[in-house]
Amino acid sequence: MPKSESNSEYEKLMQSAFRLASKGLGYTSPNPAVGVIIVKEGRIIARGYHKRPGDFHAEINALNNAKEDVTGATLITTLEPCAHHGKTPPCADAIISAGVKKVVSATVDKNPLVNGKGYEKLKSAGIEVIEGVLADYAEAFYASYFKYITTGMPYVTIKFAQSIDGRLATKSGDSEWISSQESLKYSHYLRKINDAILVGANTVRKDNPQLTTRLVKGENPVRIILLSRGRLNPKARIFSDAAAQTFVVTSSGRKLDKGFSIIPVAKNRSSLDLKQLLKKLGKMEITSMLVEGGAETITSFLNQKLVDRIEVCVAPIVIGDGINAIGNLGIGKINKAIKLKKVSYSKFGPDIIIKGTPVWN
């Protein structure tokens, strides 16, 4: 790379910084995952990323990892440096003290405590700031963090596997396994990068799932069971394996057997008030949640318009009469159907995964 970096070279460096940031996914919450690269005279002299909440931020790790004096260097960061005192001192102050001459950032930090203040502090110290390199990618990368930090509620992703004809299971309820091993591993990756995973009580009763990240390296998410009616078996694996914190969500005032950790919420007609649940989860510093099913639970989140992302794994099989992936949404005309934007496709083994963001009217 030449000594004078061009915009295309900044983009390449930013891509590398995002790869570093990705190492922190699933570990840094409620903080964002951030990656930093420091360049001097056309050479990368330092790299760093945020590893865990309470630890040094990515900027500080990069400065500490520098192989030489960073005076006059350019710092590439995936997110605006902070300018406030939290569990650690402001990163903007450390960058100024180190003598960095230029900061290239992907996006502003929408945290109200930051939100441009980091840029202002750097500029006031005479540091050149270039904003918005790979901004669209950054917006997607930080979607869950941005939603949480601005609304206080977690980012909700619905993920399920279905047959070509839209079935979650056969008529008898058999669903093991619709998707391939490759798709299943990807599902476990999604569990890793989300703070929590939620399923309905019927899924626990029928499948006795573990809801862990056992197929990938990473921490298990908090497990949340939605119980609108009926009972749960206290001997189910999720209540006895101690693999992760497990909570049961049920209507306020309802009493359950001892041993369950309860999150009480109000009931809206026949279903639980999921928005109230999201607000309570936000106060628990859960910034992102994966909803894996079953059909009744998926339908409830869609009916209450509380879904931020949908990922559907379509397996190349046909079941015929069986259990629909999604129930009644009250849609009578095609033009009222829930549309997805920012749609992308991935292939895992023989399966296709369709991903997108629902557009709510």
DSSP helix count? 11
Give the biggest beta sheet.
Answer: 9 strands, mixed
Strand order of the largest sheet: 11-10-9-8-14-6-15-18-17
Give me the secondary-structure category: alpha/beta
Low-confidence stretches: none
Beta-strand fraction estimate: 25-35%
Radius of gyration: 23 Å
The backbone outline, from C-alpha atoms, is: elongated
Mean pLDDT: 91
Portion of residues within helices: 25-40%
| Strands, count | 18
Spell out the helices and strands N to C.
Answer: HEEHEHEHEHHEEHEHEHEEEEHEHEEEE
Instruction: Tell me the distance between the termini.
Output: 47 Å
Short description, anyone?
The chain is elongated. Helix content is 27%, strand content 27%.
Explain this structure:
With 361 residues, the protein is of the alpha/beta class. The protein is 27% helix and 27% strand. It contains eleven helices and 18 strands. The chain has helices at residues 7-22, 58-65, 91-98, 117-124, 135-141, 143-151, 181-193, 201-207, 237-240, 274-283, 295-303; strands at 35-40, 43-49, 74-77, 102-105, 128-130, 155-163, 167-170, 196-200, 222-226, 246-251, 262-265, 267-268, 271-272, 288-293, 309-315, 322-324, 339-348, 351-359. The strands form four sheets. Strands 11-10-9-8-14-6-15-18-17 form a nine-stranded mixed beta sheet, sandwiched between helices. The model has no long low-confidence stretch (mean pLDDT 91).
